[in-house]
Amino acid sequence: MSGLDKKPKIPQPPAPAGSSGNLLSSVAPPSQLPNFVTATPVVPAVEVPQAAVGQPIAAPLPVGGQPIPAPLPVKPIIVQGRDEPPPQEDNAEKFSPAIPLGKGEPVMSIRSPEDSQASQSPESLPDSTSEIDKLGDIMPGSGLLTWMKGAVSTGGILQRVAEKAKSSVDSMITTLDPQMKEYLRSGGDLLVVVASDKEVKISPIRDAFQTVFGKANVVGYAAQSEVTAEQPVGYAAAYAAAKQRIAHVRSVHGDLNNNVPVVAVEGFLHESVTDRWYEMSLMVLSQPSLGIELQQVSQGTAVPAAAVAAAAAATPAHYPHAQTGYSVTIGSIMAASLQVPHTQWQESSTGVSRRELLLLTARSLAGSYKRLLAVSANEA
Q1: What are the Non-canonical purine NTP phosphatase/PRRC1 domain coordinates in residue numbering (predicted)?
Q2: How much is the pTM?
Q3: Which residues make Cβ contacts (< 8 Å) with residue 205, sequence separation at least 6?
Q4: Which of 12, 151, 188, 310 meets the CB 3.0–4.6 Å disulfide criterion with 215?
């Protein structure tokens, strides 16, 4: 048998040792691990002619058999002066912007510092000591500066926010303790006297004057009218009764000088057309020291003609004040008809209480009185 026919002998592991030997001694040594890393391919070098060394390359060298494209030509940028017209190209495409040029442009043109200083000289600025006013005039399109100017000015948003916060705190306190309302708003230099000791008349007048003036002391004294009927009919009878109440208060309380305003409230019946009756309240404010006398009439509450006829029928024929009204009040008749207290018949009839009616009337009266005080102070 030739040498090619001989098969290589496979080495056999050694025979296991006896049971008395070590187990590790029977393990064969590890063989060499196979290497799968191939050899790095050799890239053939590109020979460059000796004559081309030091000279510009006319064309890019091919890499991998593919030519490299030539670089795109770069168009030179022309620096244009401020006064030079832009160059015109015959074949250049004209750019049409999607957004008009007027959109997004500043209100004022962008100018050089020399032009800005020349146009905005100190003589051209408005006569104002506030820097915010100057900025607002120079930049009329700035909404922030306008907001700041209104915020810091007298009566601006900051003052309104402070007043709103104070009003919210006062409202919270008075909600938790209604008796604190009179305590918070009482005081100041204004004293108002009401010619009545009834809370339904004093309370709305107090709230109205304290709302208009901020703080005011409002007190009430009992006063009666002896020159008119118990239920006045017509504006003239109500005005006479109110004047009588004011005179009574001043005569009884000598400490009230003519500089203290006195307010009287008198309810009366008014016939707008035939058998169309309304119950209204006349409010009169008198301050002789300034020659002020104000009159204000409340909103009317409709009264059935049958109730007025009942009051007329209940009045005696020889009633001394029959010319000015009736001896029975319309409130007692309406309360008996509606089966409610005589102070709640307006609310039961129309849903608006007498206090609400008097409150609106007193606020109008207080506002007119405040305006007259301002006029008198300016004249003085």
Answers
A1: 196-287
A2: 0.54
A3: 192, 194, 218, 263, 265, 358, 362
A4: 188
